[in-house]
Amino acid sequence: MSNTDKDSDTESGGEARTETETELREQFFAAIEAAEYPIEDQIGAVSALPNGMTTRFEAGEFSMSAASIAAHLYTYQSFPYETPEAFVNDLMDGLRAEDLI
What we know:
This protein has 101 residues and is mainly alpha-helical. The protein is built from five helices and two strands; from the N terminus they run H-H-H-E-E-H-H. It has helices spanning 3-7, 19-32, 42-48, 66-73, 84-97, and strands spanning 56-59, 62-65. It has a two-stranded antiparallel sheet. Strand 1 (56-59) and strand 2 form a beta hairpin. The two termini are 25 Å apart.
C-alpha cells in the first residue's frame, strides 16, 4: 500500500474527507495493519488492537471504543479481509452510513 492510497484527501468515489475522517482512517490503519491477514472474523481484528475491545478511537467530536464500533457496524463488515485497506474502508463506510462521522 502506498501512502497516497492511505492518505489521499478523497474517497474512491471522489468525495472530500473531513479532518475527522482522515484522523480516524490513520488511527484505524495504525491499529489494524499489524494483524495477520486474512482477518477471518471480529476476534481476529480485536486481537490486533493494542487494548483489545477497550481500544479507543478519537478524532474531532468522535470518540468510541472498538467494542462500540463493532456493535454499531457489524452489518457493514464483510469478513474475511485480505488487506487493512479493505477493513478500514468498510469501517469508514459504516460510520458514514450510520451518521457517526
